[in-house]
Amino acid sequence: MAEPTPRRNEPRLRPAPLLFEPAQVAADPEHFFDLESIDDPRALLTRATELTLAFRAATDRAVEFQAIAAAQLADPRRFDRLTPADIAARAEWTEDYAKKMVEFGRDLMRGVEGPGHVDPV
Fold first, then answer.
1. Which of 24, 54, 76, 104 places its Cα 20 to 30 Å from the Cα of 18?
2. Rama region for 33: left / alpha / beta (φ>0; ψ in -120 to 50; rest)
3. CA proximity to 86, closest of 104, 103, 100, 70
4. Predicted confidence (pLDDT) per residue in 76-85, tens digit
5. Pick from 34, 54, 53: which is nearest to 44 by CA?
6. Taking the CB of residue 31, how many other CB atoms lie within 10 A of it?
7. Rounded to two decimals, what is the model's pTM?
């Protein structure tokens, strides 16, 4: 299960670095962040866990940025604002999910993160 996203007043933990993968190595479907070369199961578990946590943290951050962008695009003060349907089409979401993401983004921009706050994901 994913760890909860740290809120604005909590320091963010720094996940393990996602090491750069050269193009020719990344093209190999058996290659994944050099995990296949680790023989020791303890070391493999440690590094795979680090990567899992790093990807989760990256996903949480990316979702927050998606929500903020959705809220900004839906801002009624913008002359070029988008409807939830337009945002959903751009992000490959359902319209209902786009509405939730717009609200989540507005909450993030206002700094509202209380016990009643629900992450849309």
1. 104
2. left
3. 70
4. 999 999 999 9
5. 34
6. 15
7. 0.65
